Amino acid sequence: MRAFVLAGGLGTRLKPRFGDLPKGIVPVGGRPFLAHLIEWLGRRGVRDVVLCTGHGAAEVREALGDGSAFGVTLAYSEEPEPLGTGGALRHAVARVEGPSLVANGDTLLECDPWTLELARWRSGALGAVALYRVDDARSRGRVEIVGDRITRFVEKDASFTGPAWVNGGLYAFSPVLWRRLPEGVSSLERDVLPGLAAEGRLAGLRVEGEFHDIGTPESWARAERHLSA
Predict the structure, then answer these.
(1) CB 91 within 8 Å of CB 83
(2) Contact 7/24 with Cβ under 8 angstroms?
(3) For the domain bounded by 2-129+168-182+210-227, which CATH number is listed?
(4) Which residues contact 66 (CB under 8 A, 6 or more apart)?
């Protein structure tokens, strides 16, 4: 199974600390965050990885090379302009050869990616999303799920209290999914996944595992503590 890693983020909220460094190679535990993610994939038997790059693509390639240092084979799909997460995947369509894993390049949910693909295949869905539980979801978008099917994605709701399941930024997709990706700029999270959920064609897998996120200074600090050990 080939993995596509969305690594074109600007890292705007991290800019005061790291300047113009591409978000995926912001150091965590003394190493680029993407190095942790790529090694995690390799240790779980996913050794064919495509990095979908954008901002700072040359810096990302220089930092990570061909993947041999991490036990994987790395290829690169560079956006000609910012295309969003959906557009970046669409741009990499020529590299799709079968069922694929897709991972956000600024998060890491430590679970079994093969179990995620198995859940997608068994359900007959076009996609499956790895979900993790948070104790207080009032400041988070949440996922509503019935059985093994995601029914909808709910934006942040300050009036909501208590635990919920949220998107872990790790997906398994049928190759048919790429036909659903529009040309040009699009968001996987906002433009593609909600439609699949509305059609009943998106599975959700509730997983247990540590979640790391470097999207904000606060979450980066938590990842720094956990991944430095």
Answers:
(1) yes
(2) yes
(3) 3.90.550.10
(4) 73, 74
pTM assigned to the model: 0.96
Tokens 């995690």, residue? 40
Residue 160 has pLDDT above 90, yes or no: no
Predicted confidence at residue 176, as pLDDT, reads: 96
191-216 pLDDT per residue, tens: 999 999 999 999 999 999 899 999 89
d(CA 6, CA 105): 5
Give me the residue spans of the domains in the chain: 2-129+168-182+210-227
Element (H, E) at 130: strand 127-134
pLDDT at position 131: 97
Distance, CA of 154 to CA of 223 (rounded, Å): 26
